[in-house]
Design a protein that fits this description.
With 178 residues, the protein is of the alpha/beta class. It contains 2 helices and 8 strands, in the order βααβββββββ. The chain has one domain. 17% of the residues lie in helices and 33% in strands. It is elongated, with a radius of gyration of 24 Å.
Length: 178
């Protein structure tokens, strides 16, 4: 005698999702989704002449390695979600400049490079509705890069990051994003 065929527990038919059902979300146990929406934000990436001089010509130590335009543009583009997350979560962290100022807010983006830490000084500005521009002021691949007092840094490591601030000459970690 052969083995008896087993009953397979498989769904037969179509699964119907009741969109009128109330389910739990982040705010309540009983909510109904009305719409999913995606917001389009345009970001222009610019590079200051100072950056180009350091990347192409160099300084007293010669041409700076590891700060090619493609490397820097990629880091800036990948940092946007991290910047938005920290800006929305921490009232004291704002990275977008909206009006004329004597001293604009700058953020240093950091990431491990081929021979050291890549440091990119950026300045973000509001241009118009859904449009922003970021200017790379300078970049350097060095473990010894100096961060100004009161300045924020975001160190990117794959999909995670660390927000830090120079408070009175000491780098203080504020938060992480995973």
């Amino acid at each position: 005698m052969g083995e008896r065929p087993r009953i397979k527990r498989e769904l037969i038919g179509e699964i119907i999702v009741d969109e009128a059902t109330y389910v739990a979300n982040k705010s309540t146990e009983r909510a109904r989704k009305v719409i999913d929406s995606t917001v389009h934000i345009e970001i222009e990436i610019w590079c200051d002449q100072h950056y180009y001089k350091r990347a192409i010509v160099g300084d007293q130590n010669g041409k700076r390695e590891g700060i090619q335009e493609g490397v820097i543009a990629s880091l800036v583009a990948r940092s946007i979600n991290h910047l938005l997350y920290f800006s929305l979560k921490h009232k004291g962290f704002s990275f977008i400049n909206f009006e004329e100022s004597i001293r604009y807010q700058r953020v240093v983006l950091k990431e491990n490079g081929t021979t050291g830490k890549v440091n990119v000084v950026t300045e973000f500005h509001y241009v118009s509705r859904n449009k922003y521009e970021v200017t790379v002021i300078t970049a350097m691949q060095s473990e010894e890069f100096k961060i100004g007092v009161g300045q924020f840094t975001i160190e990117i490591d794959g999909e995670s990051s660390i927000l830090s601030k120079n408070e009175g000459g000491k780098i203080v970690e504020i938060d992480t994003f995973n």
